[in-house]
Every structure is written in C-alpha cells, then in structure tokens.
Design brief:
alpha/beta; seven-stranded mixed beta sheet; 17% strand; Rossmann fold; five-stranded mixed beta sheet
Length: 424
C-alpha cells in the first residue's frame, strides 16, 4: 500500500487548487495509489539568488525558481515569469498544468515553469538584461535542449529569451538555439510563435461558436489582459469578424460597445507601456470587465480571477481561458451548475504557445525552418485533434470539459511512468 506525501514546500492557494484538480481527475479515472503521488508532485525544484549591479552602482539580490514537474515523457517545457508576486507554489502549480497541457496535445514534453520575484517595469534595460543572464547562468546545469527548455511568460519576451540563449551558448561553447523557445526570428525563433497562444485561443473560441451555431460575425468578445496572449487573442478574434468591446491590463480597462480600435490600442501600449488613459472608450475596472455581457470572455492575465464571488454574474456564452488557472475550483462548480457557459479549459485553450514552441524546438534541432503558413496549419491541426479527443472523453464519461481534458493529460503521464517503471 502506498503512503501519500504531503508537500509543504509548495503550499499556496494556487498549488492547492492544482492539486485538487489533479485529485478529482485521478479519482475519475481510478488512478492506482502506487502511481498517484509520482504523477502528482513535482520531480524537482531549484531556488537561486540572483545578485545584479544596479544603475546607481548598488547591488540587489533577487530570488528565482525553476520547478520541473515531470521528466518521464521528454525534456520538461515551460515559461519563465518575471513578476513581483511570484511564489514557488505558483511556479509549481504552473509546472503541473504544463505537464497536463503537453500531454493532452501529444507533445513529447514534461511540464516545467520558472519565475523571478521582480517587477520588470522597475528595471532599466541594462538591469533587465543582467537579471535575465544571471538567471540563465544559475540554471545552466539544470536546463538544455534535452533536459528542460524554457520560454517566455508573464513579464518576459523574445528579447529576454535571446539573452538567455546567448548566455547558455557562451557556457557550452557553441550556439545552442534549442535551449529556449520564443526567441527572435534572427536567433532561430519560429514564424508564428509570437502570436501562437492568442491565435490558438481565438481559433478554439471560433470552433466552439460554430458548434453552438452562433455566427462569429454577430459575436462580441471581452479580453482581460492586454499582454502578448491577450492582445494577440483580441486581434485574432477581430480577424475572424468578432467585435472586441473591452480590453484591460493591470491598470484598468477600456469599454466601447461599438468595438475597440485594437491597432490603435497596441500602438498606445507600445509607447505608454500601459492602457491607462487610452481614449478608445470608457474606463472600466477589471472586476466589472469580467461581468460584461458578451459572447466570448477571455481571461488572459493571471490565475484565480474568476471566483465564487463573480462566477454567478458572468454574462458570456463561451469562457476561453487564455491564462493558466484563471478559474478557481469553487467558481468551476458554480459555472457547471449554471450550465449556460461553455468553458474551454486552459490546458486546451492556451496550448497554442507550447505547440509552436515545440515546432521551434524541432526546427532548431534540425536546422530546417518552416514558413508561417506551415506553422499555423500544423498548429490548427493539432488543436482540432485535441479538441476532438476532449469532446469524445466528455461525452463518453459525462465529464465536464475541464475534467475531460485533465483526465486525458494525466492518464497519459501516468501511463508513461508506469511503462518506465521505478529506477532503483
């Protein structure tokens, strides 16, 4: 009989949330006790001190993490987050979700995640480069093309990935583009990678609207978060003919029932760095934005924004989870009981980013590069296949869509661990 472990290292609201999701899915597929904890808990983690010299000559030490959840199905894969509220528990939960996501869409990866406790907006460009390079320097012995492949996340971007690739390459003595994904095209980045997550969110939202027989041209969308995922989701939804009536970032939102001028908003954010005072509509709070009447709601910022406090007041038809873990377990229950909202769960909805990261990795390893049309065609093909498998699982076992997606992802990881056995 196996003895369950209790991890206090990662204890946090978001890690407990991920664990409860796992437990519910494991119960639903009767996952044997002997394999449960091996599948559930992270494989290993690293915490590092990151001293950098500031512009004024002083030295600040930042704290960084990397959690590798699963290494049984291939190298681990996951973004690096630069945010002032990063915790090791949050990073561990995100690594867990990456495992299920990669497994669900059939990628030969385990899940990982990294983070640094820092507000990147408070750093000069030189300080940001120093911190990025220092983080990779500390990770050199724990990452690599066949070990762990980082990517951008909240607060990081392709420029930071370029610095990290250069740092790693200098350590190993040769150019190694496959060590990170989400790089600039000039350094081996993939066509379509920048917009991949948002394009996938919009594509799946369109497909579910078609299933519901709702004309896309008559639909409205609200997007919380106007970073990479949110802005690309909004542009892709608009490209399908949908009217995007509200967008937001951490400084607040903009609401315009006639539709937001998205290129104008992007240009404004490019120069101002925030949406605050953008004149494309009426100001609206993030809380009120989530409760706007719309066809598609895309939470594309941070986790746990849809809770038991606001789930009953959502007025969308489709909830497309662009962020990781935006909906709490209590909110999930309320939405399920309501029965009038179709949830596209995060492990399916925002998987476009890691799918095209996989394409980038393949192209780096083979030194053979694809054009954007080929990348997008392959991306949408994988999303279609994953959607079909989730819908089949949902119908077959009468699961919610989230439970269907999680059970598929978790079962495949558990099967891999079972097949490999226990190394003495």
């Amino acid at each position: 009989m196996s003895k369950a472990i209790v991890s206090s290292l990662y204890d946090s609201d978001v890690f407990r949330m991920a664990c409860r999701q796992f437990d519910k899915a494991a119960d639903a597929i009767n996952l044997p006790d002997a394999i449960r904890d091996r599948t559930k808990y992270p494989k290993r983690c690293l915490a590092v001190a990151l001293p950098i010299k500031r512009a004024d000559g002083s030295v600040t030490v930042f704290e960084g993490y990397r959690v590798q959840h699963n290494l049984s199905t291939g190298p681990s894969k996951g973004g690096i987050r630069f945010h002032q509220n990063v915790t090791i528990g949050e990073v561990a939960a995100l690594a867990m979700w990456m495992s299920w996501k990669c497994s669900l869409v059939g990628l030969p990866y385990g899940g990982a995640k990294g983070g640094v406790i820092v507000d990147p907006n408070q750093l000069t460009p030189t300080e940001l480069e120093s911190l990025s390079r220092r983080y990779m320097q500390e990770m050199v012995n724990f990452v690599g093309p066949h070990t762990d492949v980082p990517a951008p996340d909240v607060g990081t971007n392709e420029k930071i990935m370029g610095w990290m690739m250069d740092t790693y390459s200098n350590h190993v003595g040769h150019v190694e583009p496959a060590v990170v994904t989400g790089k600039p095209i000039a350094l081996g980045g993939s066509q379509g990678r920048k917009e991949a997550t948002g394009a996938g969110v919009a594509y799946l939202a369109k497909k579910y609207l078609e299933d519901l027989r709702i004309p896309v041209a008559e639909a409205t969308a609200v997007v919380q978060g106007f970073g990479n995922v949110g802005s690309e989701s909004a542009l892709a939804l608009a490209g399908y003919g949908m009217k995007v009536i509200a967008i937001s970032d951490y400084t607040g939102g903009i609401y315009n029932p006639k539709g937001i001028d998205l290129p104008k908003a992007q240009t404004y954010v490019q120069y101002q760095r925030v949406l605050r005072d953008f004149d494309g509509g009426e100001p609206i709070s993030n809380a009120d934005l989530l409760e706007l009447n719309c066809t598609v709601l895309v939470p594309a910022a941070l986790e746990r924004v849809i809770t038991d406090q606001n789930a009953g007041r959502l007025k969308c038809r489709v909830l497309a989870e662009g962020a990781n873990g935006p909906t709490t377990n209590a909110a999930d229950k309320i939405i399920e009981e309501r029965g009038d909202i179709e949830v596209i769960p995060d492990v399916l909805c925002n998987s476009g980013g890691v799918i095209v990261s996989y394409f980038e990795w393949l192209q780096n390893l083979s030194s053979f590069y694809w054009d954007r049309d080929e990348v997008m065609r392959k991306l949408f093909g994988i999303l279609d296949k994953a959607k079909d498998s989730v819908e089949y699982q949902k119908r077959k076992f009468k699961f919610s869509r989230r439970l269907a997606a999680l059970t598929l992802g978790i079962q495949r990881v558990a099967d891999a661990k079972e097949c490999r056995g226990l190394f003495p």
